[in-house]
Automatic annotation (TrEMBL):
It comes from Butyricicoccus pullicaecorum. The lineage of its organism: Bacteria, Bacillati, Bacillota, Clostridia, Eubacteriales. InterPro entries: Metallo-B-lactamas, RibonucZ/Hydroxyglut_hydro, WalJ/YycJ-like. This is Metallo-beta-lactamase domain-containing protein. It comes from the Bacteria. Residues 11-177 form the Metallo-beta-lactamase domain.
Amino acid sequence: MTFRSLASSSKGNAYLVSDGETVLLLECGLPYKKLAEKSGFTLMNTAACFVTHEHKDHSHAAEQLIKRGVPVFMSEGTARALELWDAEIIEPNAPIMVGAFRVMAFRVAHDAADPVGYLIDDTRTGERLMFAADTRSLSYIVPRLTYIAVECNYEESLLAASQRIPESLKNRIRHSHFEVEDVIRWLKKQDLSHALTIYLLHLSAGNSRAAAWQTRFVREFPGVEIQICKE
């Protein structure tokens, strides 16, 4: 299984997962033409797209993908919020098969209608990816994780000290996005004995420290590759 970030920020999110035969697109939060360009113009080879919630930096190209024949999966609440009646509905905790991938949605906490994350299993190799984009926190303990792609949005000390963000927005961020210390605490609860790579997603442009976080995560999780996904 491979995981590739095309875009990872509040400007847009999109990620490709492949087993060499089947390609999945996770999120489509860029205009279609830009998404096609970043994917190397391979979108029509995508077996399916999975969207976590309705915010445009995660769902921008959903309608265009559907019009071009790519099945786009999302929760029922997300489909209603986007008024995408042709979207494919995926129910949390009810896995579906796409090629050799088994994909299961799970609920997350975010300021959206019906947000979810995705657990993706390669049924041939046993590899497992947990994908959680925008979320305030996670409580799931998941066995046999090979890859973890998780939002790591902001650092509380930087957010609190920011002079450009109003308090109302600071509080929204605190109640809807994953703070770095909370991410670390959650990861430390997992059995990472099978983990190969942790991908950190959706870093805030002004309230994160990519280089320092890279060093910190390498120290906290020895033996696991740490990749920070850039915008």
